[in-house]
Amino acid sequence: MGTRNTDSTVFPKGKHFPAPWNLKGEGFLFPLWAKKDYNREMGFFSGEDSKQYTGGLGSLMLVNYETSDVGPYYELLYIPGNFTYKDESYKRITRIFVSSQKSVEEGILNWAIPKEKADFTWIREENLTKISAFRNGKEFFRVTIATKGFSFPVSTKILPYTLLQKATEGYLSTQFVGKGKGRIATIREIWSDEAVFPDALKGGIFKTGIHSDPFELIFPVADVID
């Protein structure tokens, strides 16, 4: 059972946590086959994003990092599909919230991931998980997910994701590596305030995905792409 996260971890002033990061916990991944018109309009794209966007496979992810280089935190993120840069295809996170301010700062610094701070509830009741996200005390996202069936191995080798995120100068490219045990997950109910986070159903997600518990994830040092 999870409660509203208040981000009480205290770090020495100015301390930096460089990549690579090692993270462990549980998470949900729901694949997306892009509805391009909706995502261009409501996916929190920059002008550059819109020009580079080609659609295709993306995902909605919800993660409970029980351990990380900056302590435990929750995460909600949206990848609306593929983006092309210099004839190469990449994934890109266009909207992401985490419950740790340090994760916000380090995510931007290490990988140019545009993290923002939010509070979360993450409540597990037998085979159901109920997750909500709040900003300034106002709920902007909630989902109820059912998990069922036998467990099976999962790995990023099956579905490799290479991110390309816009940095202050150029781009940062990151291919994270992960593995864990998965079960089938199904969305029972989902809602979002589209002024804050995309409506993932309108954006193209499938209601069936994977619940990985436990998983291990490595976020390596990013490559600089001119």
Rounded to the nearest angstrom, the distance between the terminal CA atoms is 44 Å
Q: Considering DSSP H and I runs of 4 or more, what fraction of the residues is helical?
A: 10-25%
The residue-averaged pLDDT reads 95
Q: Mind telling me the CATH superfamily name?
A: Acetoacetate decarboxylase-like
The 3D shape can be described as: globular
- Structural class of the helix and strand makeup? mainly beta
Number of helices: 4
Q: So what's the CATH class?
A: Mainly Beta
In which order are the strands of the major sheet placed?
Answer: 8-7-4-3-1-15-14-11-10-9
Strand content: over 45%
Largest sheet: 10 strands, mixed
Q: What is the total tally of β strands?
A: 16
Output the radius of gyration.
Answer: 17 Å
In the CATH scheme, what's the topology name? Acetoacetate decarboxylase-like
- The domain count comes to 1
Low-confidence stretches: none
Overall CATH architecture: Beta Barrel
List SSEs in N-to-C order: EHHEEEEEEHEEEEEEEHEE
Overview of the structural elements:
With 226 residues, the chain is mainly beta. It has one domain (22-225): Acetoacetate decarboxylase-like (Beta Barrel), CATH 2.40.400.10. It has helices spanning 36-42, 47-52, 101-111, 200-203; strands at residues 21-33, 53-55, 57-67, 73-79, 82-85, 88-91, 95-98, 115-117, 119-125, 128-135, 138-155, 162-166, 171-175, 177-192, 208-219, 223-225. This is Acetoacetate decarboxylase. GO terms for molecular function: lyase activity. Pfam families: ADC (PF06314). InterPro entries: Acetoacetate_decarboxylase, ADC_dom_sf.
